[in-house]
Amino acid sequence: MKHNHGGGDYKAGSITLGGAVAMGTGVMIGAGIFALTGQIAELAGTLFPIAFIVGAIVTGFSAYSYVKMSNAWPSAGGIAMILQKCYGPGAVAAGAALLMALSMVIAESLVARTFAAYLLRPFNIDGGPLVPILSVGVILFAFLVNIAGNRSIGLFSLVMAAIKIGGIAIFGFAALWSSGFDFAAGTEDISAHGATGFMASVALAILAFKGFTTITNSGAEITDPHRNVGRAIAISIALCVVVYLLVAFGVGSSLTIDQIVDARDYSLAEAAKPALGEAGFLLTVLLAVVATASAVLASVFAVSRMLAMLTDMKMIPHSHFGMTGPIQRHTLVYTVVVASGLAVFFDLGRIASLGAFFYLVMDMVVHWGVWRFRREDIGARSPILIAALCFDAIVLTAFTAMKLQSDPMIVILAGAGIFTVFFFERSYLSNWLAPQYGNRDE
User: Fold this and answer.
1) pLDDT at 181 > cutoff 70
2) Which of 27, 37, 288, 413 has the CB geometry, 3.0–4.6 Å to 118, for a possible disulfide?
3) Residue 317 burial class via C-beta count within 10 angstroms: exposed 0-12, middle 13-18, buried 19 and up
4) In this structure, what DSSP letter does residue 15 have?
């Protein structure tokens, strides 16, 4: 059975459990390891491997809301469907869904800049105009592949996920082995930022796992979705925890915290030099370039489809701007333009921070909606939903406090962005929420 939303064809049962896991891990590993390891170490100090574990635990609680809702109503609408089921077709649901879409676009630009940073390492180029140029280049490449057709994207994601997981696991083992399983980063003070810095680092670690929402957005296409959406999310998060810990300990065995922070945009490549020699360094760069390019490809596809879905659900306005073809092709263009702009004007740290603010706010809106309006319908347990909400609030508070000290402008930009999204949606739609949807109406 095919579903047509916004010009895109969605075929029920077209994604296997393995394909769903590959899709989730493909998006997660591209951003989580190559882009965020150094950023997390900067905040968490020697505890940065633990930040990944805590991030996974918080994500596990968060995933509960999405799994329970997807089990009840598997849909290609994914997060947009969840929000609409909770709040009705109003500005709260539309605003939070648009924040999710924007956080996905931000993730694209984050991974695109990481692609550029790694590609330039063999030439000892750090920064400069080539970084935004190459970042935009890989985004445009992903656009062209998506325009050419998406039939092979599923298979491509599966192959790339296997290469990424295998290659990164080998890197982690080799780095640990060559160091005699010593943790060089562990010889320093725990963290200059204390408990607040550690909790703030968890906000970025959560970004390393948020790719599981890509699985939620493909609920209607996964085989036996009532069982497999939850299983795919759980397997993806578990796989990523193992891979992230291998990398964290591998990097920490080769570099001190100061060295990791200095090389935060390309920490894996820097760690490969003392651990694996010049050949290992070049292979790590190659792996990073391939992994980040494939992650951009998968992310561009996912975001454009979500925006097409939001258009189809009348949650955002749409203008063709003179373009022909289906709506998803138009949303591909919008996605590429916004991601390219972010990649040009923001560095990795600011892009990651913006993504964390947008995603955590959206996540809290989801948990509140599920707890307030739908927990009885789906058989969800209140303590888990409340715990997920509290964890997000604690992490967001700590992250905001840290950024107000180190980069207050990004807090202002994030706050202005969130306000603008909800103000825009309230202007576009007639109300904040529809009470008849918020009760038990189907």
Assistant:
1) no
2) 288
3) exposed
4) B
Radius of gyration of the CA atoms of the chain, in A: 21
Residue 119, C-beta contacts closer than 8 angstroms, at least 6 positions apart = 134, 285, 289
Which helix or strand (DSSP H or E) is residue 251 part of? helix 225-254
What's phi and psi for 321, nearest 5 deg?
Answer: 50, 35
Whether the CB-CB separation of 35 and 268 falls below 8 Å is answered with: no
Alpha helices by DSSP H, listed for 122-224, are: 130-148, 153-178, 194-207, 212-216
8 Å CB contact between 355 and 107: yes
- Of 16-25, 184-193, 215-224, the one with minimum mean pLDDT is 184-193
Provide the pLDDT for residue 243.
86
pLDDT band at 439 (very low <50, low <70, confident <90, very high): very low
332-352 pLDDT tens trace: 888 899 999 999 999 888 999
Q: How far apart are CA 29 and CA 9, in angstroms?
A: 27
Tally of CB atoms within 10 A around 308: 23
Helix axes 91-119, 78-87, angle to 10 degrees: 160
pLDDT for residue 353: 94
pTM of the model: 0.88
